[in-house]
Each structure stands twice: as structure tokens, then as C-alpha cells.
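Entry 14. Ran structure prediction on the chain below.
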Amino acid sequence: MAEARIQGSTAHEIADSIRALIASGMLAPGESLPTVRGLADRLGVNRNTVAAAYRALARAGAVESRGRGGTVVTEPLRTEEEGFAAETVLRDLGSGNPDPDLLPLPVLAEVDLRTPALYGDALIDEGLRAWATAWLEEAEPGRPFELSVTSGAVDALERLLVASLAHGDVVGLEDPCFLSSINVVRLGGYRPVGIPLDDEGMTVAGLRAAIDAGARTVVCTPRAHNPTGISLTPARAAELRAVFAEAPHVLIIEDDHYSLLSRRPYHSVIPEGHPRWALVRSMSKFLGPDLRLALLASDADTAAQLRTRLSPGKTWVSRILQRVAVGMLDHPETPAALERAGAHYAERGDALRALLRERGITVRGDDGLNVWVECGVDARSVSEAMMRRGWLVRTGGGFLLEPDEASPQIRLTAHTLDDAELRTLADDLRAAIDDARRR
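Output, C-alpha cells:
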């Protein structure tokens, strides 16, 4: 038996021995490890030594504790990412990317980067601080906050979770959910609990269930939810605030990733006086994904925890990037460029949703870069049929907290298509769904 091969006298040696058995295939996913008492007795070590080895393996994601069900080897974690499919000859509608032609990149030539930033300098560029503070005060009028800058929204989420949670803590996530949020929670060793969405956003019953299940952090997208495009209504936001008001221990993270491009108003779910909260606004969608910058407003305690992970000499965000960002944001041509981009994405999304509805296809949401389609049939079959017609689409199963390859949804990123191409896409999707249903 493989468990008889586990060796070691320290927690580190025992953990390494088990990892070697997993890597060799001698311990397979789903297989149980010996009890702490049984392995400690066999190796002649203290039970705390074995327990420490098992905790280290759990933190690394190699095993998981199932309470009375023991400790079992986990399946290798598979993650999905946004981006173009490499070397495809198909028209890629699964990327989730903004249109590079609509990013305000030409203004970069006028950004002044001559003054160097050194160790010990302020973490946040003063120009960016002034711009961001005014912008975030508009979103959270009257709510005191401290500003942080991170290397994108995913970096912000990861740092917030590390600063506030322990391994195995429960995180409430929308279901379906943004791919990177799923990956951050799973790779960090936290336990995701799904909160369903309806046409008004995160459901009240789902939020209550997540908090009852022990969620210490909840991540909510107030508008242009990825992948569905759903935005919170004022009434739903008020209902969610009432639920959060009864749970002051919960860290509320709002991921307002689409912000300046959104056609929908921002409705916060953070109750007045809530002690633990953070609003994250990425610049990836409107200044460009490669800028790797996000602004984060939060309560003072959360900001203090973040500062320990964003200090000079460790992993602060480059002041050069910060100056690039504020130079782009302050440029007189940028507001018009952002208005054009937001209007274009909205018009293309609305046009595609209308065409699909005309053909009897159910779609959800009304904002963002993507269109979420309910096919009513296994999306894998629809995807295969679309490939035969020259389209590459993204199936929706990967966006679910419990990945389901047979899920009936697909996500389309089609804002670069003209009117004729959108009509062809809608016709082809109708035919593909019919083909899948016949099969």
C-alpha cells in the first residue's frame, strides 16, 4: 500500500514524502491518507507533527480535509484564463478582450516620465492620488476611505483575501463568476460558495445562504458582471445592503471592473458604517490590460493590512505605471475616447442581443464586453457546430464554481463585428443550436 511508503520524522519530511507519492501516481486523487493518529504511531512521532504536515499539504492544495471523512488527495487544479486562442483559423469570439483600437494609447507619447522614483518614496503617485480620490469620492460620497494601488483587480483580490482570511475560510462568489476570481480563491486554498444571479444581480437568498455557510468575504460585481453582463438594480442593491448590515464581520469586496465604460449606474451593496469593505476599480478595460493597475478604496483597517503587502522593497506598484495612468486619464482627449469606447461596446452588445432574441435565443444582461447566451442544449455541441461554421465561442461551464462541461451557456465577445457579421453570427448560432438539439 502507498501509505506504508510515507516516511519522515519532521512535518517537512512527511509532507515531502507524501507529495512524492502523489507526483509518482502512487497516491491517486480521491485516495485517503492515514489518520493522524495512525501515521504518527507508525512513524513514532508526535501527532502534532503529522497534523502540521497535513496542514502544509492542504495549504499547497495537494490534499483536503473532509472532517470525519478524513484527509484525501485532491484532483490537479485546472484553471481557465481569458485571452485569444493561439493559432486558430476561426473567428475568435471567446477572448473577453477590449478592442485595442478603442484604447487611448496615442496619448502615451505626451506622458512625462523624467522624474525617477526611488526606495522610500510614497507608494502612490501624488497626481494619481488626486485623480483617484476625486473619482472614488463620487462613487462613495460621505464614506471615509483610504486609497491603495495594486497591480490590477486580480492582484487586489488576492491581496485582500490573503490579508483577511485563513486557509480554508469561505468566500462567497457570484455563480457564474469571473474566471480570475475563481482561480484566485481556489489557488489560495479558500472554499468558494456560489451565490446565484437573476436579472437584477446577486440574489438575496443566495447571499443569505452564503453567509449562513460561513462566508467571511463576499465578492460582488455591481455592474457589467463578467460573464453575464448583469447589473444590479437599485432595489436589489438596497436589499443586499440590508443583508450585509446584519453581518458586520463579512468583508465586502465590490469589483467594479467596467466602471468608466459602463452604461449603467453604480449601485453599492456596502451598508453605511460597515466596518470591512473594499471597492476595486481596474483600469484594464479602458486604459488597456497591459497597464496592470487598479485603484482600491477601503476602510482604514483593510488599507493598513494591504500596506504591509505593498511596501517599498517588496511589491509596490511601479510609480512609472502610475504616472502613465494619470497622464492618460488627465489627457484632454481621453474622456471623449472613453465615451466612444463605452458607446461602441453598448451599441454592439445591444445589437447582438436584439438579433439573437429575434431568432428565439435567450440572452442575459445588458452591459459589458460580452453577451451571455442560454442555448437550452449542451454548449459543447453548440461550440462544435459553430466551429464548423468558422466561429470559436467560449462555453459557459468554466465560469461555474462547479465546472460543468455540459452546461447550456456560451459567452460571446463580438464587439469587433460589423452589422453584416453580427447577422451572420446570429444565423449561425441559431443553426448551431438546432443542430445540437437534433443530435
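The two ends are 45 Å apart (CA to CA). Will compare against last week's run tomorrow.
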